[in-house]
């Protein structure tokens, strides 16, 4: 059985109960976090965050753990449904953030930065292609 660290004090009761149940299920499997990551679509670091209570586990992670453990999904998904609206938005921090700083922009969803760069690169390529085509069309008429 894993020796778990205490859950953050800021974690609501419903979320705390869900994480405790997930911890128990993970312990019951006897799998390490690395083995659990190999058997599910979630990384070792993601499982660390979910099982430490610093990040809300996605519904799919709860389903995946239930599948690996051979447990009843309905009960844990019902707990997830109860915990979901109470879960603190953003990471659960040990100390409250300082209100003195400027307001922070909301975090980008996964892959958003990549999509921004890809869109900018495609736009730049299109502009270069159009300028090249325009030059090729205009240059023969200038010389003749």
UniProtKB/TrEMBL annotation:
Membrane-spanning segments: 120-139
Full protein name: HTH cro/C1-type domain-containing protein
InterPro entries in the cross-refs: Cro/C1-type_HTH, Lambda_DNA-bd_dom_sf
Region (Disordered): 92-111
Record key words, sorted: Membrane, Transmembrane, Transmembrane helix
Alphabetized GO MF terms: DNA binding
Sequence ranges assigned to domain HTH cro/C1-type in this UniProt record: 18-76
SMART domains reported in the protein's UniProt record: HTH_XRE (SM00530)
Pfam families: HTH_31 (PF13560)
Alphabetized CDD domains for the sequence: HTH_XRE
